[in-house]
């Protein structure tokens, strides 16, 4: 029952993400934004805030950064390994990139991702069960807004075209390498002792995978046209 509920949550998150893209010229939301750009919150914003109104049919937001409010139920996994937090899922940094628009920001981060850039829509993960912060953290039980360590893709540095899928990548069909250890990895909280993770694809279908079956081609999004 918990696994079914988690998959249902992810389907709702997928609907919210596509609703956002439909309203924003085909662009998926960023995972996290820091900006002084007019029209954006100067304190930054996050993907659950940006898609929440599409899940709640335009109603009052149920997730707000730094505010103790009842969260939207779809953002909470019933199998979460740590009680607490308002968000138990993390986003692919390739599809929902971190965006810093402040003047002189360094390093430069990837542009927003269009849904039309995705070719393998039923293969690549968009949002999945994310590692949770520990109980002594100020955001006890929160998921990282974006994965920071999947397949050794280090989110602390600017991403490059080589991080995207290439049919020439020799490790496409091998199990992904462990994360770098500083957080932002999968939380394998399903499938009993085998260790499984649930995720949503950009085509809207949700599924679970056991740890040993997750390969690099499932992590690496299709490269957007024109990315040097």
Put the structure in a nutshell.
The chain is of the alpha+beta class. The chain contains three helices and seven strands; from the N terminus they run αββαβββββα.
Q: Could you please describe the fold and organization of this structure?
A:
The protein is α+β, with helices and mostly antiparallel strands and 228 residues long. The protein has helices at 2-23, 47-55, 216-219; strands spanning 32-34, 45-46, 89-91, 98-100, 125-129, 196-201, 206-210. A hairpin with a 4-residue loop joins strand 6 and strand 7. Helix 1 (2-23) crosses helix 2.
Poorly predicted regions are none
Span between termini: 45 Å
Q: What structural category do the secondary elements indicate?
A: alpha+beta
Quaternary state of this entry equals single chain
**Percent range for helical residues?**
10-25%
Mean pLDDT: 80
The string of secondary-structure elements, in order, is HEEHEEEEEH
Profile the largest sheet: 4 strands, antiparallel
How many strand segments? 7
Radius of gyration: 16 Å
